[in-house]
Amino acid sequence: MAQEVLASITAQNTFTDAIVLQGYFSVSVTGIAGGTVVTIQRVTGVDGANYTDVDTFNVDTESYGYEPEAVQYRIGVKTGQFGSGTCKVRIGQGDSVSSSSSPIAFNPLGDTITFTAAASAPTGVQAPVYAKFSGENAGQYCLVNTGNQTVFIGTGSTAALAQAAAVAPTSGNPASSIPLPPNAVYVLNFNKESYFSGVCSVDTEIFVTPGQGL
User: Fold this and answer.
1) Tens place of pLDDT for every residue, the chain, 214 residues?
2) pTM > 0.70
3) Where are the CATH 2.60.120 domain residues in the chain?
4) Hey, which residues does 189 pair with through a beta bridge?
5) Distance CA 185, CA 143 (A)
6) Fold adopted by 107-212
7) CB neighbours of 130 closer than 8 A, spacing ≥ 6?
């Protein structure tokens, strides 16, 4: 269901009502003048009661963010950060937004990395995603299998964890790896700054591009 919160701000310590977001959402800021600083906040996951700053804007902005959980957000001007004029702010979310996919075409947001999946998984390599907001801890990656054999992809927060996770499952022995079929192109969600490795029966080159979208 589409939803939004808006405010026309003419004084300090003024925020929109809270809005519960999950998935992609848009942010609009116009009318910044005289040194006004607009702050977007979310309820902290530690105590679920207090707001924590996510990002700030000191120029007019049209942007978007991603929230993996259903969390309250608000946007406005904190005490001591209003300049002059009327600043209009908005957070919105459309009907088509979901927590697991993006409504936009895939947009590369970093360098493509490559590694060779082999019978013995190589040390993991990193493909960092450039987050829109500091609160975002998920990114999308386009993975390309250039070979004619299935590669089992391992991921992790370190090179060693990614390498250890690159294990082919067998009957009675499940594994956390992700099968990437021959000549496949997958767009998947992982934590930002993830490491990747892979195991395959024959040497196979894998390309990984960080970004957002499908």
Assistant:
1) 578 999 999 999 999 999 888 888 899 999 999 999 999 999 876 666 789 999 999 999 998 888 877 889 999 999 999 999 999 999 998 764 344 444 567 778 888 999 999 999 999 999 876 655 434 445 788 999 999 999 999 999 899 999 999 999 998 899 999 999 998 989 888 877 789 999 999 999 999 998 877 7
2) no
3) 3-93, 107-212
4) 140
5) 6
6) Jelly Rolls (2.60.120)
7) 109, 110, 210
